[in-house]
Amino acid sequence: MADTTGVVIDPRYAAHDTGAGHPERPERIEALLPLLEASRGPMVPVHPRPATGEELALVHDGAYVAEVAATAAERPWYAFDADTPTCPQSYFTACLAAGGLLALLDAVMQGKVRNGFALVRPPGHHAERQRAMGFCLFNNIAVGAEYLRRRYGLERILIVDWDVHHGNGTQHMFEADPGVLFVSTHQYPFYPGTGALDEVGRRDGEGYTVNLAFPAGFGDAEYREAFTHIITPIAQQYAPQFVLISAGFDAHARDPLGGMAVTASGFGAMAHALLGVAQGSAAGRCAAILEGGYDLMAIRDSAQRVLDELAGNAAAIPDVPQPSRAGALIERIKKVQGRYWKV
Ligand SMILES: [Zn+2]
């Protein structure tokens, strides 16, 4: 039904085995499985399908897709880098992750659900056109954005990436392309090293990359100020026809990798702001996909809050006036982005 929220989750996402001690582990999906079972209200499962090689090649080199495919049989247990190992099930799982988002996008575009959340692994936003990195094999959200353009003819896609790490792969795939506005909040300097304020896109895409590089320690108040003064105004001016969210939860205060202090309700507030943008120009069309997040309780609570927002079940966001330390940084970002947008 068109007033429901689609949820993609599947026990097969646990089959990608990263080895003992790796933070991007199968338990991340196992911890999220109860969310759909427990949910009342307007949430429905959307069944994932594997993305095809042709769909992955919308944003990846065909030779690179073949290289990942080879880990299923000819090259078992191959590690693309120290962070990005594979097992014989990794290729299929990665195809199912990208395809899970595509199934959700189809459900939204065909009016079967209003919006949704793809709770998948492995994550995707670090994957480059021809390179795996940072736990990521295929760039799920980039495949999704390109799919919306090719399959449905959309011309303006907004991607907001609030993972604590910069979405280097997504930025690089679209930085010369005004058809995708890429906005990222991330800890900086930090892995993977990209995402400085002055990375604003290039050629025809200049002005369509917005980097909010944050020092460690920012929390709900600073993120809220950034959404109010930078992200929401720019997104509204762009008037996207679809809103995609790279929803990592490793900016959560309890995350063992990130150095930020966001809470589950902080992520809910970000989703709320982006749903407002989607309502304004995209007929409410919005899909989130899980990226990072390595504390199981933090990702479960945060995913729940975002799902509650998507489904319209959320309690009102408490408007606690908190002092924000972001003021001076917001002014610097306004100077950079003011060349392209009214901020
Ligand atoms: Zn991350």
Structure description:
The protein is of the alpha/beta class and 343 residues long. Helices cover 36% and strands 13% of the residues. Strands 2-1-5-10-9-6-7-8 form an 8-stranded parallel sheet, sandwiched between helices. A two-stranded antiparallel ribbon has the order 3-4. The protein is globular and about 55 Å long. The structure holds zinc ion. The site of zinc ion has 7 residues, from loops.
Q: What's the short story on this structure?
A:
36% of the residues lie in helices and 13% in strands. By secondary structure, the protein is α/β, with parallel strands linked by helices.
Approximately how much helix is present in the residues?
25-40%
Q: Topology as H/E string?
A: EHHEHHEEHEHEHEEHEHEHH
Shape: globular
Widest β-sheet, arrangement of strands: 2-1-5-10-9-6-7-8
Give Rg in angstroms.
Answer: 18 Å
Say how many strands there are: 10
**Portion in strands:** 5-15%
Small-molecule components bound: zinc ion
- Report on the biggest sheet: 8 strands, parallel
The protein's oligomeric status is: single chain
Number of helices: 11
Distance between the termini: 37 Å
Overall mean confidence score, pLDDT: 96
Indicate the low-confidence ranges by residue numbers: none
Helix and strand composition category: alpha/beta
Please render the helix and strand layout as text.
Layout: E1 5-8, H1 27-30, H2 33-38, E2 43-45, H3 53-56, H4 62-69, E3 79-81, E4 84-85, H5 90-109, E5 115-118, H6 140-152, E6 157-161, H7 168-174, E7 180-187, E8 209-214, H8 220-238, E9 242-247, H9 264-281, E10 286-290, H10 296-310, H11 327-337
Helix pairs in contact: 5-6, 8-9, 8-11, 9-10
The structure holds zinc ion.
